[in-house]
């Protein structure tokens, strides 16, 4: 198979960095673009420093690319309600420009949406891609606005851009200080003998998926050329925060938890049906207990 030139926008982030390493391992020619260069990089990856929101820069970096993974977002679910205008003015507008820049090329784009926030509160679970999205925070709504723009470009320009609705990824490289990552926060706080904060009673259910599985699913989308535009990338399994604490207690005894008032930005239950993506990649997925153990071991090794 011919080596493809693949650009990852947001290549220094948790998802982007893991994806770049996976793409290199699969023999692809990988370009990582972000606001700054990593302190420690992979010698097999081409790192590009620049501003995604500068039109000239964006046009130059996409030249000659076969595939673009778009993982840049200036908001997170926790701060999106107070910073929503920033997201609409910058992320939404610039991604629409990106679509227009690639409309006359052979390049395809795969956009990282949010399976955990786009759908909002849904009765039927696991949630299929055909469900009507009703986001309850601006982060989810921003992602949905971008999704709809991509659909319009696909229809008008006969493009084949895809949307990956990723559930709740966790694993090496995550940093909960950036606004997401309950499992990351739980492990690291426990290791430092700090209290884990849970907003609500701990019965909020999420669809946690190990980062390696996310990367494999994303990679499988490169060669998909059917009519489907949207894919859930998920484990298809719901787990409460209290369940995560119970698993963690088997590894780190006496985990300390503090329950705080529930937040209006959090949907009560999000479990995503992954039938579509599994029909393409057919993964034997990492179980939550195994994934948490792997991530714990990784953190311990890094400490040493």
Poorly predicted ranges: none
Shape label:
globular
Q: How many beta strands in the DSSP annotation?
A: 13
Q: What name is given to the CATH topology of the domain at 5-170 and 208-236 and 271-283? A: Rossmann fold
Can you give the helix content as a percent range? Answer: 25-40%
Strand order of the largest sheet: 3-2-1-4-5-6-11
On the 0 to 100 scale, the average pLDDT is: 94
CATH class of the domain at 5-170 and 208-236 and 271-283: Alpha Beta
Cα-based radius of gyration, to the nearest Å: 19 Å
Q: Which second-level CATH architecture of the domain at 5-170 and 208-236 and 271-283 applies?
A: 3-Layer(aba) Sandwich
Write out the CATH superfamily name of the domain at 5-170 and 208-236 and 271-283. NAD(P)-binding Rossmann-like Domain
Q: Helix/strand/pairing class, anyone? A: alpha/beta
Distance between the termini: 40 Å
Profile the largest sheet.
7 strands, parallel
Produce the secondary structure layout:
Blueprint: E1 5-9, H1 14-25, E2 29-34, E3 46-49, H2 55-61, E4 67-70, H3 84-102, E5 108-114, H4 138-157, E6 162-166, E7 168-170, H5 182-191, E8 196-199, E9 205-206, E10 208-210, H6 211-221, E11 230-233, E12 239-240, H7 241-251, E13 257-260, H8 275-281, H9 288-303
Helix pairs in contact: 1-6, 3-4, 5-7, 6-8
Walkthrough of the structure:
Residues 6-232 form the NAD-dependent epimerase/dehydratase domain. It comes from Roseburia inulinivorans. By secondary structure, this protein is α/β, with parallel strands linked by helices. It has a domain at 5-170 and 208-236 and 271-283: 3-Layer(aba) Sandwich (Rossmann fold). 37% of the residues lie in helices and 17% in strands. It is built from nine helices and 13 strands. The protein has a seven-stranded parallel sheet with strand order 3-2-1-4-5-6-11, with helices on both faces. The protein has a two-stranded parallel ribbon with strand order 7-10. Strands 8-13 form a two-stranded parallel sheet. Helix 3 (84-102) runs parallel beside helix 4 and helix 5 (182-191) runs parallel beside helix 7 (241-251). The longest helix has 20 residues, at 138-157. It is globular and about 55 Å long.
């Amino acid at each position: 198979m011919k080596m493809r030139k693949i650009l990852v926008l947001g290549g220094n982030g948790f998802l982007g960095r893991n994806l770049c390493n996976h793409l290199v391992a699969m023999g692809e020619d990988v370009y990582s673009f972000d606001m700054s260069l990593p302190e420690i990089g992979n010698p097999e990856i081409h790192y590009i420093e620049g501003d995604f929101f500068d039109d000239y820069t964006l046009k130059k970096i996409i030249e000659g690319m076969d595939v673009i993974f778009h993982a840049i977002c200036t908001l997170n679910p926790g701060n999106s309600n107070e910073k929503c205008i920033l997201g609409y003015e910058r992320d939404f507008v610039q991604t629409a420009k990106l679509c227009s820049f690639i409309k006359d090329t052979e390049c395809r784009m795969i956009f990282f949406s949010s399976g955990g926030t786009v759908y909002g509160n849904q009765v039927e679970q696991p949630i299929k891609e055909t469900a009507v999205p009703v986001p309850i925070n601006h982060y989810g709504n921003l992602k949905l606005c971008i999704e709809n723009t991509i659909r319009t470009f696909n229809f008008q320009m006969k493009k084949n851009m895809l949307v990956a609705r990723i559930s709740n990824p966790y694993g090496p490289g995550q940093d909960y200080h950036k606004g997401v990552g309950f499992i990351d926060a739980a492990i690291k706080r426990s290791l430092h003998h700090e209290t884990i904060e849970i907003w609500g009673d701990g019965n909020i259910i999420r669809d946690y998926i190990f980062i390696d599985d996310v990367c494999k699913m994303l990679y499988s989308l490169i060669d998909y050329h059917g009519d489907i535009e949207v894919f859930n990338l998920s484990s298809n399994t719901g787990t409460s925060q209290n369940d995560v604490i119970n698993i963690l207690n088997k590894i780190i005894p006496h985990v300390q938890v503090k329950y705080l008032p529930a937040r209006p930005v959090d949907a009560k239950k999000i479990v995503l049906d992954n039938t579509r993506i599994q029909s393409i990649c057919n993964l034997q997925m990492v179980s939550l207990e195994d994934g948490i153990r792997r991530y714990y071991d990784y953190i311990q090794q890094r400490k040493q």
